[in-house]
Amino acid sequence: GQSLEQPSEVTAVEGAIVQINCTYQTSGFYGLSWYQQHDGGAPTFLSYNALDGLEETGRFSSFLSRSDSYGYLLLQELQMKDSASYFCAVREAAGNKLTFGGGTRVLVKP
Amino acid sequence: EAGVAQSPRYKIIEKRQSVAFWCNPISGHATLYWYQQILGQGPKLLIQFQNNGVVDDSQLPKDRFSAERLKGVDSTLKIQPAKLEDSAVYLCASSGDSLPYGYTFGSGTRLTVV
After folding, report:
1. DSSP three-state, residue A93
2. Which parts of chain B have pLDDT scores under 70?
3. Cβ within 8 Å, pair B91-A42
4. Most C-beta atoms within 10 A of its C-beta, which of A86, A93, B28, B81?
5. What integer is the mean pLDDT of A19-44?
6. First-last CA distance in chain B
7. CB proximity B39 to A under 8 Å
């Protein structure tokens, strides 16, 4: 089975940087994904890391360390529209099944 | 490209009643998933289809939940009879078979069982 841990809530001001950590335990691992979900909306795909290192996509970056079973999502130059829940999700070795963490609610204040 | 379509958007039923949800995935996506998301939690996989075959239904409460994907395209998820604890958002997603393997989710069906 899989288990993922991430902080439940983070608060920051506009323009700041936020790092959301995710630690996982898994019997099979292909990669770590990140999804964003606004209240009442559908989760949307942000990034995927299969190999160790940093992947950058605009203001968002994602990092993976397979040896530490750890990853993080970095949100830079925070904007009000970044207020949402962020989920890490492990892609299992078998198929493309994703197991999601409990989510981190990010609140951006003016 | 068109997104993942789901209906209905909202549903309120009494406990012990039955309900069905419909999903139309992105054209060409062979893999389709149904997730249950309880308020304040992450999505939990109920069932995964590859074309019209079931890949994983280990977390589907089979005594009350059923799902099918006829002809490898549209899918329906049914609950019969519903319980209060089934109140949640039911999300359908589909994915292709190439990197970055991202899911595209539908807007979901918010089910309230009273």
Report:
1. coil
2. 1
3. yes
4. A86
5. 94
6. 37
7. no
Residue-wise pLDDT tens digits, A65-97: 999 999 999 999 999 999 999 999 999 876 788
> Helix/strand/coil (H, E, C) string of chain B?
CCCCEEECCEEEECCCCCEEEEEECCCCCCEEEEEEECCCCCCEEEEEEECCEEEECCCCCCCCEEEECHHHCCEEEEECCCCHHHCEEEEEEEECCCCCCCCEECCCEEEEEC
The pLDDT tens digits of the residues spanning A35-51 come to: 999 999 999 999 999 99
Chain A residue numbers touching B105 (CB-CB < 8 A) = 42-44
- Residue whose C-alpha is closest to residue B67's, from B81, B51, B54: B54
Q: Is the dihedral of CA B24, B25, B31, B34 positive or negative?
A: negative
Peptide bond between residue B81 and the one before it cis (omega within 30 degrees of 0) = yes
Using a CB–CB cutoff of 8 Å, tell me whether B36 touches chain A: no
